[in-house]
Amino acid sequence: MNSLSPLIRPLLVFLALVSCAARAQTAQPVRVAVLADKGIESAEQEWAGLFDWLNRRVPGRSFVFVGLDHPELRQAVHDHSVDFVVTNGGNYSELEYSEGVTRIATLDSPLGLSPDQAVGSAIVTRAGSGITELADLKGKHLLAASPEAFCCYQIAARELVLAGIEPERDLGRLEFTGFPIQRIARAVQDGKADAGIIRTCLLEQMIERGEIKPHALRVLSPRTIPGFPCQTSSRLYPDWPFAALSHTAPELSRQVAVALLEMPRTPEGYRWSIPAHYAIVDELFRDLKLGHYANLQQETLEALVRRYRLELMLLASLIVFWIIHTVRVDYLVALRTRELRHMTEAMRERQNALDHAGRLAILGGMASAIAHELKQPLAAIGNFARGMDRRIVAGRLEPEPLREGCHEIVQQSTRADATIEKIRSFARKNVGVMRSVNLASFVKEAADLFGVAHPEVCIDWDDSTDPSGAQVRADAIQIQQVTFNLLKNAFDAQKAAGNPGAPIEVTLADMERGYQVSVRDKGGSLRDEDIAHLFEPFFTTKPDGLGLGLALSKGIVESHGGTLTLTKEAQGVRASFWLPAEYPHD
Amino acid sequence: MTEQDAIIYLIDDDDAMRRSLVYLLDSAGWRTEAFASGRDFLDQYDGHVPGCMVLDVLMPFMGGMEVQQVLRARDICLPIIFLSAHGDLAMAVQAMKLGAVDFLEKPCKDHVLLDAVGRSVRHSIVQCLSEQQLAAARARLETLTAREREVAECLAAGDCNKTIARKLQISDKTVQVHRHNAMEKLHVHSTAEIARLILHAQTPSA
Predict the structure, then answer these.
(1) What is the pTM of this model?
(2) B23 and A412 in contact by Cβ < 8 A?
């Protein structure tokens, strides 16, 4: 700029001045939106004085009245198609939050106590209605002008809510009549409704004008506000503000504010005052969950999202990662569980097959014992019958020997029957049923059974336990199977060593909170390398063995929580199994 | 000595089996004595003959074969009928070699058993009778003096009195006295009978 010639400088100043003047002359009209929910024309008339004043006091600008109802006003402010807005306190408070409008002055009404405390609601009822408090309105028929009317429905509604009455829910009927609200007062007086919501001071004005008889209507839950001449059911709220939109030039706002404050009182007594506080309106909206509180959460969420976008994205990616991880882990767990189940099923099937094979082997071993047990009584019966026949043929008919023969036949048939029943019940017994049993008695039973099947065997039975004791929880058949197996091994070992008749020692003794059954044979010795494999299925040292006995026995004993061991002795082998006592004693 | 004198010894460890065999044999007219084990029998047997044993092969503690061996060792000659629940051919052959009369499979037909018992008892009687005759002959020979025995043996060999007198260097008269006394003592009436008796006594016992 320093390089510019002194001649050019005055020219620039002139040009600037010209452009300013041109801008002033071509300035667009200032559009002032006015809430006109009671009709545009009446509103325009009502506010005509204000517009005259502004047009006079703010030079070079023309102020245009734009009468709008609630939705139109909201839209116009949102679209910035107006520069100022004049509306009620409620509507203003809403716009302040949503659109950022700023009040520059508040109406000072002759009816109000002050611009801050100017508007309130009176809920009126007939004098003799019996309704005295707001709470009494429950289930009653209430009239109001419009749900959107700040004054006076929303103001009254707050008091109702605070008195415990949710208008939509608790009132018998909530009827909106529209404006003017004078008709509400009349309707209540005429008994067309139980109560009605009107503006404060309206009742007093109507009585003064003779439109309503004094004492015909009564204000519910009247509050006393010092200095306030009218009866009110609600607290008082600030009057209408004159507000600038966010895009309105500050200079214009300042000029308008100054003009408003300088405006003299109207013939009705209205003037403009410094802006009031609208915080109380905010409280009302909060209580009624109206206005910006209706969508506060949404707004807050949006704001939060905007503010914490990075953190949220990080969180989101963490969540996504966590979900992927969880799904993967779940999948792997499911996969491995399935594999494990297949494995256990295969194992169980193999175990079942082994069990089955083992049982068949034992049944085979018992078949000769069973046959022997049945053959004896049948042979005896035959002998008795033939003997009797011979006596009869020979004419030796003494009754005593014949009766003896009959008696013996009966006895022997009973014995055969008992044997068959025993076999049947043995075959029927459920394998896998754990019961409380006496170890001594059924090990002895197994030893006896073995003795029957192998008459040449000699078993030395020694029970050193308490006769009442040796109580274990076991499947008796399975433990007998184990005992049978061990005896068979012992006997086979002795036979192979050439001394089948040597006594096999079977002992039962207390041991470590349980009982131990030992079967000791005088057979050949075992080779160390064989001992390691003895419990493996299909391993056998016998020429005709299946190699299942010990593997099965070990499985059975271990399923009972016990142990099966083999130890080499100087001569022969000791096979022992231990089972935990049912009632261990220390 | 007749079948009436025979006793059938039954040895079986199964009570019912034992009783039923006793009943059957009793019904057929036999006298019986029953034992639960071979040992019981060996402890109580008084050497009575004639008779036979019916013995179970498979018994605990002392099997039938063992009982048979003990009887042989004690020179008791009761015929043995073995009963076996398991038809074991090898065992049967061995038992028969050791002198068993019969080897029957249990349960056997009653007439099979009774036939075997009858046969065994008759066998026992014959055996007893021959044993008795032998014992009597030996006993009578024992009553002779040494000289009488020499004379009797020479007679049995077919020598005449003169030859005997020359052999023994005694007189004819003395030979005649010895010959007379020997025939008296041996209850025989001819030299042929003397010869048969001495021959019989010299055969080994059964």
Answers:
(1) 0.39
(2) no
Tens-binned pLDDT, residue by residue, of chain B (206 aa): 677 889 999 998 888 889 999 999 999 999 999 998 888 898 898 888 788 999 887 766 667 788 888 887 887 778 889 888 666 677 777 777 777 778 888 777 888 899 999 999 988 888 877 777 777 878 888 888 888 888 888 888 888 888 888 988 888 899 999 989 988 888 888 888 888 888 777 765 44
CATH code of the domain made up of A432-580:
3.30.565.10
Cβ contact (<8 Å) for A412 and B110? Answer: no
Say if A390 is an interface residue toward chain B (CB within 8 Å): yes
Q: Which long-range contacts (CB under 8 A, 24 or more apart) does A75-82 make?
A: A76/A33, A77/A33, A77/A101, A77/A245, A80/A245, A80/A246, A80/A247, A81/A31, A82/A31, A82/A32, A82/A33, A82/A245
Residue A110 and residue A262 in contact, taking contact as beta carbons nearer than 8 Å: no
Verify that B8 and B107 share a domain, yes or no.
yes
In this structure, is residue B138 part of a structural domain? no
> Which residues of A, range 438-467, sit inside 8 Å of B by Cβ?
455-456, 458
CA distance, residue B119 to nearest chain A CA (Å): 19
ipTM of the assembly? 0.71
The CATH number of domain A21-114+240-303, selected from 1.20.1440.20, 3.30.70.270, 3.60.15.10, 3.40.190.10: 3.40.190.10
Question: Is it true that the peptide bond before A71 is cis, omega within 30 degrees of 0?
Answer: no
Q: Which CATH class is domain A121-219?
A: alpha beta
- Supply the range of the domain harboring residue B59: 3-133
Q: Check whether residue B129 and residue B186 sit in a common domain.
A: no
- Within 8 A of B27 by CB-CB distance, chain A residues are 386-388, 390-391, 394, 396, 401
Helix, strand, coil % (nearest 5) of chain A? Answer: 50, 15, 30
Does residue A408 belong to the interface with chain B, where contact is any CB pair within 8 Å? yes
Nearest chain B residue to A454 by CA distance is B60
Residue A383 has its nearest CB partner, among B20, B29, B60, at B20
